[in-house]
Amino acid sequence: MTGHVQPTQQAPPVQRLRVRYAKRGRARFTSHRDFARAFERALRRAGVPMAYSSGFSPHPRISYANASPTGAASEAEYLEIALAEVCDPEKVRAALDAALPAGLDIVQVVPASAGALADELTGSRWWIDLPGIERQVLANAVERFLAATSVTVQRMTRTGMREFDARSSVLSLTIEGESLILVVAHEVPLVRPDDVISALRTLTPGFGAMAPVTTRLSQGRLNPSTGDITEP
Question: How far is the C-alpha of 167 from the C-alpha of 165, rounded, in Å?
Answer without folding.
Answer: 6
